Amino acid sequence: MANTFKLKTFDGSSTAASTAMTVYTAPSATTTVVIGLNLANLTSSTVNVDITITNNDGDNIYFAKGVPVPAGGALEIMSGNKLILEASDVLEITSDTANSVDTALSIMEQT
What is the pTM of this model? Predict the structure, then answer.
């Protein structure tokens, strides 16, 4: 097995409000360990963010719901925890405000 560390980013500066932003889809034949997830608020007001995971069985769950990200601030979601994504699992971020959240996702892919 090969282990590869990666950074996946999503520029949320041109995204409509309440629109899911696909930050990461786990490739086939790959197990992914999420080791960090940082959200940066680009606006001058607090925004609320949902983080969802759709797994390869079609289950769509909230990893976090309605999390406030302070105006001009950032929020580290993982806080030392790990999350395992299997092949075809999808991680999405949704903000209640347009053009408001940049995302940085630190992962390790095992192939």
Answer: 0.92
Q: Is the pLDDT of residue 88 over 80?
A: yes
In tens, the pLDDT along 41-74 reads 999 999 999 999 999 888 899 999 999 999 999 9
State the distance between the two ends of the chain, measured CA to CA, in whole angstroms: 5
Which domains occur in the chain, in start order? 3-110 (2.60.120.340)
pLDDT at residue number 57: 84
49, 9 Cβ separation under 8 angstroms: no
In the DSSP assignment, the letter for residue 19 is -
**How distant, in Å, are the alpha carbons of 22, 27, 28, 92 from that of 102?**
12, 22, 26, 12
